[in-house]
Amino acid sequence: SFNPEVVAATYVPKRCGISPVRSLLSLEQMVARREEIKKQQREEMSDDGDEDDDGEALQQVLSVLLASSVAKLRGICTSNGLDGQGPKSTLIERLIDHIATGMRAQRGGP
């Protein structure tokens, strides 16, 4: 409210509700900023989703590889240009690494 007895006022930053440096935005500008924030959030969420999908796919591949015989794993390794020697766990590890590298390459990741 307006007090006619007050002749002058002092601005104290962070204690006053009005800032001399604050600019007012039009409704269109506020809507545009909010849409930009929503777009960035959707992009971040979709990026995270790709990694989750890759993890699920690798889990399915792992279950198939665990059920496969050593001879079959050796054949798969050899056909993909990988070393086909070693125990079953080593063969599975090589194949999972090979598949994960291919998935990252398709996504354009590191």
TrEMBL record:
This is SAP domain-containing protein. It comes from Phaeocystis antarctica. PROSITE patterns: SAP. Residues 45-56 have a biased composition (Acidic residues). Transmembrane segments: none annotated. Residues 36-56 are annotated as: Disordered. InterPro entries: SAP_dom, SAP_dom_sf. Residues 65-99 form the SAP domain.
